[in-house]
Design a protein that fits this description.
alpha/beta, about 30% helix, elongated, two-stranded parallel sheet, about 25% strand
Amino acid sequence: MQGRLPGFQFSLLSGTEEEIIEQLRAQSVDVGLSTLTGKRPEGLQRRELARLSMVLLVPEKCGVSAAGDILGRDRIDLPLISVPADEPLARLFQGELQKRKVDWFPSVEVPGPDIVLRYVAEGFGAGLAFGTPGRVLPRGVRAIPLKGFPLVVFGALWLGKLSPPGAVFVEEASKLARELAAKTIPPKCLDQE
């Protein structure tokens, strides 16, 4: 953004999808970046930026190398570490488990994906996360793809017509998302660097 709009400044706030929509409607933010679930809220515009897969992060010492090693069990005794149940990632994951008639509910809910990773690295269980291209995992943590699970759609939201700086921001975000999506690098471990 600095290269395209010298002197450009912005504030970065975090919030749930609902909080972002509220801030857009109150016109306290120009552009929101969020998961895109359900129908587009009335009056809001949106652009899809990325579709992210779901993965399970597991401690390598637990011996799990495929999702079926966990999901195929009659009784799953490995604790699940997840973001809160109202987050789209957790909702989509639990919805797919229900379709598959698998019961596996979080033992630990944490506020964000970075904390999920930290708990997995400490050996507290398996964590639900986004499959982020090029992500570097700590030593001893493995990412296991959840094949057949729905993708989580991430995008930009705005109200009405974008301001010129807002349009540049969405364009740059789209460009960055395409660059990340083009990476086919599987998650790496720090000890492999």
